[in-house]
Design goal:
globular; 10 strands; 3-stranded antiparallel sheet; 9 helices; about 260 residues; Arc Repressor Mutant, subunit A; about 40% helix; 5-stranded antiparallel sheet
Length: about 260
C-alpha cells in the first residue's frame, strides 16, 4: 500500500482529509515481519508507526531477564504515542507479535504535528487514554478471573485490533500473556475446540464462533470492547467545505466498522 492511499488505521481515518494528508506526506509504507523492533526501552523512537495490519506487542523486562507483555497495539492507534507526552524514559519496548504492514512517520514530524495541530493531539490523547483504561481493566481481570476467561478476553481483544479470524500465537506466548502454564493453555484450547468455538493447531488459532466466545468471557471483555468501539466517536469532529455543495460543510464520516478486512 502506498502512503497516499486511504489507510485502514483507525486513528488516521479519524483525522480530517487535510490533516491526514499533511501528516502522511512524511510517511513511508513498510512491511513488518514478526519480531521487528518498533522501539527500544529508554530511547526516543526513530519513527511513529501507524499499523495497517498485524499486531505489535508492548513488553517490559524484569530484573531476572524475563520479559512480560503489558499490552498490544493494532490498527486502532499509533505505536510511540506515549513518547509524545513528555521526556520520561520508558522501560518498555515494542515489537511485532503478528506480521503486518504500517505507515511510518519520522518521530520528529509526529512530535511536531502533536505539538502544533490540535486535531492530531486530541486523537492521540484519546488513544492513550483508551490504552490506559484497558490496562487498568486487565489488571483487575488478571487478579480475579480464571485462566479460561482471561484467554478468551485476550483472543477477542486481538481479533478486534487486527480484524483477523486467524491468529498466529504459540502456546508459550499465550501462557505468558495470561500468566499461566503452557499445559493450562493446552487444556483450555482443547476445551474451546471441543465446544466449537475455536480451532487450534500448530500455533494457529481460528476463531470459529465469536458470539460463543463472548458468551463465555468475563465482564472485562465487554468493558474493554466498549472502550475500543468508542474510540474517535466522541469529542470534536472535523468538517470541511464540500466542493459539490457550494461551500456547504460536510461533517466527519462514521468511524469505519472494525470489519475492514479478513485474513
Amino acid at each position: 500500500m502506498s502512503a497516499s492511499a486511504l489507510p485502514t488505521n483507525l486513528l488516521l481515518l479519524s483525522l480530517s482529509p487535510s490533516t491526514r494528508a499533511s501528516l502522511l506526506k512524511h510517511a513511508t509504507a513498510v512491511e513488518l515481519p514478526v519480531a521487528t523492533a518498533l522501539y527500544e526501552e529508554a530511547t526516543v523512537p526513530r519513527y511513529a508507526w501507524f499499523l495497517l495490519s498485524g499486531l505489535a506487542s508492548i513488553v517490559t523486562a524484569m530484573p531476572n531477564g524475563e520479559s512480560v507483555e503489558i499490552g498490544f497495539i493494532g490498527r486502532e492507534g499509533m505505536v510511540g504515542s506515549l513518547h509524545l507526552l513528555g521526556p520520561a524514559s520508558l522501560s518498555t519496548r515494542c515489537m511485532m507479535q503478528m506480521s503486518g504492514s504500517a505507515l511510518r512517520v519520522p518521530f520528529a514530524e509526529a512530535k511536531k504535528a502533536f505539538d502544533e495541530v490540535t486535531e492530531v493531539r486530541n486523537r492521540i490523547l484519546e488513544f492513550v487514554q483508551e490504552q490506559s483504561a484497558v490496562v487498568e481493566q486487565i489488571a483487575g481481570c488478571n487478579r480475579i478471573h480464571d485462566a479460561e476467561q482471561r484467554l478468551i478476553r485476550w483472543l477477542l481483544m486481538a481479533q478486534d485490533r487486527t480484524d483477523y479470524d486467524t491468529l498466529d500465537f504459540t502456546q508459550e506466548y499465550l501462557s505468558e500473556m495470561i500468566g499461566t502454564q503452557r499445559t493450562t493453555v493446552t487444556v483450555i484450547a482443547g476445551d474451546l475446540q471441543r465446544r466449537g468455538l475455536i480451532r487450534y493447531s500448530r500455533g494457529r488459532i481460528h476463531i470459529l464462533n465469536r458470539p460463543g466466545l463472548e458468551a463465555s468471557a468475563c465482564a472485562c471483555d465487554g468493558i474493554v470492547r466498549q472502550l475500543f468501539q468508542n474510540l474517535y466517536r466522541n469529542g470534536d469532529h472535523w468538517s470541511e467545505p464540500d466542493p459539490s455543495s457550494n461551500g456547504a460543510v460536510q461533517s466527519s464520516p462514521e468511524r469505519p466498522s472494525p470489519a475492514l478486512h479478513r485474513a
